[in-house]
Amino acid sequence: MQTITLDRYADVRDAYRQHDLEQALYDAGGVVMADSLLVLHGAEHHKRRRVENRLFRRGTFRYWEKAFLRDVVTDTLAPFAAAGRADLLEIGYRTVMNLTAMVAGLDQPTGAPEEAGAATEALYRFAKTFSEGATLVHSTRDPGEVRAEVAAALEEFDAIFLQPSIARREALLAQLAAGEIAEDDLPRDVLTALLRNWDELGIDRDILRRECAFYLQAGSHSTADAFGHAADDFFSWARREPEAAEKGRHDPAILQRCVYETLRMHPASPVAQRRALAPISLRGGTEIPEGAFVVLDIAAANRDSAVFERPDVYDPLREVPADVPRWGHAFGGGMHACIGTELAGGVPAPDGHPVSESEQVLGTVTLMLEALLAAGGRPDPDSPPQRDPHSAREHFGSYPVVFGS
Ligand code: HEM
């Protein structure tokens, strides 16, 4: 089979918009990803995306950010800061996992603190295991072993989180049908949306389970990864350009640009892969024959010097063309464009038009970076960060930080 690699910014953008290119990155990750939104194509994808999109309407995350996101971020960080040391990846996962569980519709026990603590522990473990299953294509471990671990984790996840969450929602939907509660009393999450549109979507319980597991991992892994890199890039910037970084540290709009610059340079998904269902001619002249395997090299396209001047330099204050997002292709594009862009990345302030604080949507990663720096977080001088030995991707396996003076 012919493989065509696209590494120019414009070619990748054009490829994302082609309806005859279907998802091909997760063939090996079927144990979590089969029939999930990210692998569906055409009418099936459109139907599912339309149902789930309603939860991600503009304005929802502005409200979330004002109402509770900041508190979730600072409350999660507080015990780590008090202990004086932590691992950035653990802070990242723990912060965002509870948020993505909420988006997915996975209720957490509200009982005794030990019970809640054990549930958070389990979610953390599941998010990491599902993530490894989804990105099996990049794993250096034995695939059979990883698949068996994921299958076991899915069973446990089902019993601890999914079944009780389904039962609560089915009871609410019955109450809605009986006129006992109003539409607004229903939780706004993926699980509720899927249960309500069950017949139209034509899904079954296994698909439902994988979709919720996919959301848990899609949201948490990429956000935790972006947070680790954003902090690392900021620390390096502060060493190279202490004055600029000092100013940025106190300006959320600059911190947001720091995060976008990190996403451009270290996209959590460095490649996308597609299969051509028909012959395709890209505007730049590339001909893609039917059946070809297409690699969208996001990491390379995000460093295309035709679009980003001095592409290998981390410059959060850089100028970019008006029709190019500062994060390049880090959130994908076309039909599979990341549904969580606004939650994770916020809404970019337009150049030269500062937005008021009430209008601003910074996004989870910027809120996390801001909180980390405000707590005095910095790399542990005695314990340097390590790369993840089990992934061919550019992920950190650990990133120790210390707090306080
Ligand atoms: C910094 C954080 C994030 C990054 C860099 C990121 C990146 C991406 C990318 C590149 C894709 C497209 C993959 C492809 O085309 O093959 C994608 C899709 C997706 N992301 Fe994200 N993501 C992030 C956060 C989130 C969050 C917080 C959520 C949910 C709460 C989320 C949910 C999804 C979903 C559901 C899709 C599939 C959309 C579809 O197929 O229609 N992501 N993400």
TrEMBL record:
CDD domains with a match to the protein in the record: cytochrome_P450 (cd00302)
Region named Disordered: 375-405
Record key words, sorted: Heme, Iron, Metal-binding, Monooxygenase, Oxidoreductase
UniProt xrefs under SUPFAM superfamilies: Cytochrome P450 (SSF48264)
Composition skew (Basic and acidic residues), residue ranges: 379-396
Domain of life: Bacteria
Family membership noted in the UniProt record: Belongs to the cytochrome P450 family.
Protein name according to UniProt: Cytochrome P450
